[in-house]
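About this split. The held-out portion is used to measure sequence recovery: a designer receives only the structure tokens and must propose an amino acid at every position. Recovery is the fraction of positions where the proposal matches the reference. Here is one held-out target exactly as it appears in the evaluation file.
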């Protein structure tokens, strides 16, 4: 009888799998990366876009679907596309980071990305992963449940995508090139944007302000993405509350809040009930700036939540939308309340028998300039150059071979496997750090993991140069954030804070300013996976490392062969 029951269960599982496969689709897209004239803030800039759009196309799929996206580079600079948060199980060749998994797509070249969405539902996004090209080359990736499945909440009346971005009154590539030349910090952005538009509070912008329509009484799903380059953002809507239901394409235990905080790379799915008097309400975003004394863009981007039955203003009279109050720029308390509210919807299988324990410091630093270096190239304080590191290693990208190719083909000399699992020197990470510890070493150092290893990483922020919140993103994986806190992580006392029952599953963690976060995952995806700060100025300075996960024994656990059209360096 037991055997019969098991057989029936197996048959039902097999039938449901076949049905799911029958519904799965393959979506084909063409992305043409091109130079486009874009006018914002009264000025016209020539920037890189996909298909002439800013933001680029929104991709809409169901869980289980596959994507085939042919990217053609008709611009003057190199480009790659990263599918942020997509697991890329055995398809690391399609992940996209320049010189990690592929060589750049040179001007005139092309590459077809092929991958499947597996076990993920919610909101992800895509963006360039080459220099600062992602300032204008980005878009949303909407993943709905499998055909026949439903959301784990009431079906919304309508959905909207809100992509937060940053805008410079300059070509972003020139901004970062100048900063790399001088060694100082790059110029801050001139505006934040919602779906590519700055909004009413900026010059020459109000006629293009984004409108999000609603009907009284309906509940809508809003997918919010921080595609900004270098800034965490607070986000709110006047007089409305959010019910958070998802983040980084994983569902969460619903909770209510009036403000979101997203680091670059993070997504948050929220339900909004149109329960206010019919009118027009500002949707607003502005900086959460945690680094003391560091310049930041203090402007506010807006869109408008507009009730369809909102009374029309009298002729010649302008009706200003209701403006929300936003947290103070340095309101770490509000950011912390938000980031610590996330839970998985039910009990989850958190790895408990840990094979690999890592403790990784993440922070800024300085490089001493040689006495003969011109002052114009040493514009950081005290005639230095800014840098950044993990465990005192400032990551250097290869330039003539990718890490994944070198690993796959056994090519020596491209990287070394001696990234330290712990800081080489133990110090008071969030205290007054001696300046002798401010200068890291430079190198292309990776850390090897065996397939199937259970991994715990303590991420520890430092006060070197200045402390700030770092959005740490790991490619190819989701991970459980089991705890976070301020100060130095203390295993004797802080392990008692670990949530091993229902921690949230994320792909980008907000490492608190002068604090720590602990993540866990199983190394079940072979390939070379970069882990980096998603503030692009920091990744350029070297705040990154690579986890190199070896093949497993089964065919399904091995990296697929490289595609024939993989770009060459």
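Reference sequence for scoring:
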């Amino acid at each position: 009888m037991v055997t019969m029951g098991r057989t029936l269960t197996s048959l039902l599982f097999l039938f449901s799998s076949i049905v799911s496969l029958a519904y799965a689709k393959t979506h084909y897209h063409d992305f043409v990366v091109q130079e486009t004239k874009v006018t914002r803030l009264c000025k016209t800039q020539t920037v890189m876009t996909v298909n002439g759009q800013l933001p680029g196309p929104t991709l809409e799929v169901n869980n289980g679907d596959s994507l085939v996206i042919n990217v053609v580079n008709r611009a003057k600079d190199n480009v790659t596309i990263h599918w942020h948060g997509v697991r890329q199980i055995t398809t690391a060749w399609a992940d996209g980071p320049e010189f990690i998994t592929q060589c750049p797509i040179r001007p005139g070249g092309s590459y077809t990305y092929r991958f499947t969405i597996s076990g993920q539902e919610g909101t992800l996004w895509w963006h360039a992963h080459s220099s600062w090209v992602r300032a204008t080359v980005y878009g949303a990736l909407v993943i709905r449940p499998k055909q026949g499945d439903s959301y784990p909440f009431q079906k919304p009346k309508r959905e909207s995508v809100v992509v937060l971005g940053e805008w410079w009154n300059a070509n972003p590539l020139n901004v970062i090139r100048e900063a790399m030349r001088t060694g100082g910090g790059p110029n801050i952005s001139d505006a934040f944007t919602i779906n590519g538009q700055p909004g009413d509070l900026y010059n020459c912008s109000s006629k293009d302000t984004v409108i999000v329509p609603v009907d009284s009484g309906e509940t809508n799903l809003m997918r919010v993405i921080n595609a900004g380059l270098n800034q965490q953002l607070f986000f709110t809507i006047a007089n409305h509350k959010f019910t958070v239901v998802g983040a980084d394409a994983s569902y969460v235990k619903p909770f209510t809040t009036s403000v979101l905080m997203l680091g670059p790379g993070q997504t948050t799915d929220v339900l909004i009930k149109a329960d206010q008097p019919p009118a027009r309400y500002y949707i607003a975003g502005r900086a959460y700036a945690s680094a003391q004394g560091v310049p930041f863009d203090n402007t506010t981007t807006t869109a408008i939540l507009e009730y369809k039955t909102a009374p029309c203003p009298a002729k010649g009279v302008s009706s200003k939308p209701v403006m929300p109050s936003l947290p103070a720029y340095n309101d770490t308390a509000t950011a912390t309340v938000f980031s610590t509210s996330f839970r998985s919807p039910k009990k989850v299988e958190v790895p408990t028998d840990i094979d690999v324990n890592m403790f990784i410091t993440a922070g800024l630093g300085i490089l001493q300039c040689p006495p003969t270096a011109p002052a114009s190239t040493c514009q950081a304080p005290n005639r230095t150059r800014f840098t950044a590191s993990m465990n005192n290693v400032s990551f250097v990208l290869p330039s003539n071979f990718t890490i994944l190719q070198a690993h796959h083909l056994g090519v020596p000399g491209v990287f070394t496997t001696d990234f330290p699992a712990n800081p080489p020197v133990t110090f008071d990470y969030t205290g007054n750090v001696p300046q002798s510890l401010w200068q890291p070493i430079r190198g292309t150092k990776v850390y090897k993991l065996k397939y199937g290893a259970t991994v715990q990483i303590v991420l520890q922020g430092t006060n070197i140069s200045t402390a700030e919140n770092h959005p740490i993103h790991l490619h190819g994986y989701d991970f459980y954030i089991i705890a976070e806190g301020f100060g130095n992580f203390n295993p004797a006392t802080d392990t008692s804070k670990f949530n091993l029952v229902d921690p949230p599953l994320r792909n980008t963690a907000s490492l608190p300013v002068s604090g720590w976060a602990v993540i866990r995952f199983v190394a079940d995806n072979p390939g070379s996976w970069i882990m980096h700060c998603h503030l692009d100025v920091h990744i350029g300075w070297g705040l990154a490392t690579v986890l190199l996960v070896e093949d497993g024994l089964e065919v399904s656990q091995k990296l697929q062969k490289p595609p024939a059209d993989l770009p060459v360096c």
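Annotator remark: Residues 1-19 have pLDDT under 50 and may be disordered.
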